[in-house]
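Hey, I'm writing a tutorial for new members on how sequence and structure tokens pair up, and I'd like a real worked example in the thread rather than a made-up one. If someone can provide the structure for the chain below, I'll link this post from the tutorial.
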Amino acid sequence: KLWKDYIAFLGTMRAETQYEAGQRMTALRKTYQKAVATPIHGVEELWREYQQFENQLGKATADKLIKENKQKHDEAVAIYKERKSRWAGVRSETLPERFKGTDKEKSQLNKWKALIEYELSNPEKVSASLLKKRVRFVYTQALSVLQFYPEIWYDFSMFEASGNDPMSAEAVFDRALSTLPYCMLLSFAACDTYERHGNFNKARNIYEGLLKTVAKDESPNKGERLTSVYVQYQRFLRRVDGINAARQLFKRARMHGNLSYKMYVASAEMEYRVNKEEEVAFRIFELGLNKYKNNAKFALKYIEFIRFTNSSHKLLNFFERTVSNLDAKDAYPIYQEYRKFCSEEVANGGDLALLEKVEKRMREVYPEKENLHGLLSIADRYSSEGLVLDSLDDSAFFSRNMKAALQPVVSSAINTTSSSMPAQEVNENTVQLQNAPEFLHKLISALPNTFRATGSQVVDVINRIQLLQLPPRPTSKALPSSGFKNNQGGGQGGSIDIYANRHRKKQRN
């Protein structure tokens, strides 16, 4: 409508001289050419008016000018139709609501994201400043409906930051946190942005505000939430204020009675990895052990740390102190870790008697565990080494003890892949078996067991198939004559070979 009004205004301009008439004609032509190349509503109607305008001025020049502007017009029409279809899919008139998990809500979110991505692609190839205005407009429209969706706020802020506009990026986060003050992910992202821009006090205020908010929380998960805030806050303080500030916050965090053990683990790892203070890290683990002596997850993290720092001399003492405080059910992973450690020590020249002593103790505590008794205990002992035991006798043994034999493989795979130790310690063969599709697991479990995957799921299946003792193939019997007389030779037979008949026909010809 605006373009048409402007064109109508130009047409009413007075032209008392030939020069003024020429000026009006030139202004109208430039306006038409710009309008028909702009993806707006009614662009196709403007194109028809432009064609009529040029033809009235002269047929000789009309064809040439129309042809020159046709491609730009077609591109504008394509962009207009694409943009129109995308806007038609979103609902910009609805009131913002919190996400309830419906398919309709997910569909709307995806459509808004697709619309934003389309505008970010800059289909009209406009200048950077104009593109920024357009994308801002779309984000503003989206947030009028999706203001309770933190991912939209975050993406908007990252867009502003990508244009070297830190002030605008922070302004988006300010609006976001005023709308979603309890969103921890958004708060952490905002703090990272403020820190990157050197606005440390603003980040501190957000962390402090989160601590106060979560401390008033009465949900069952309060301890975990509080721990998450303290951990991130401590890391922030270590980066910007140094060791003492981070340690003071840890001291402050310990005053909360329902704090998770993860606070101690994170603090100890920071001391070891960042501050290079191994003894301080061990002291923090010991403090945590006094508080979480009945927590098997914390004990496993402590064992992980001991092994990572090659402090094997501390493991035996820790093991004895820990298992006595845990129920037998909870202590089993601890026994397994210690047994695995002893097995690795034996593999590197350690004391076999110590390993056997641990295994004997495990059999006494867990008499129901089949993999701790008899020859299966040997299989379980070396399950972490990826050995392939696929001789005929070994396979027969495993096939007779399939369920118990597979137990160490699966548990080892789960424990190995969940470890935070360096990636090279993960058994590659075990991970491949664990990540195999469900149908492949079913097939492998139905075949004679080779104890470990060989590094290739396909090879492992083939090896097991080769070990199958299938019954001999039954001797095929000749089918009875059908009495059918074929039309090539007149003979009778149980089947018709069309290729042989065709060959005989060629020979006769």
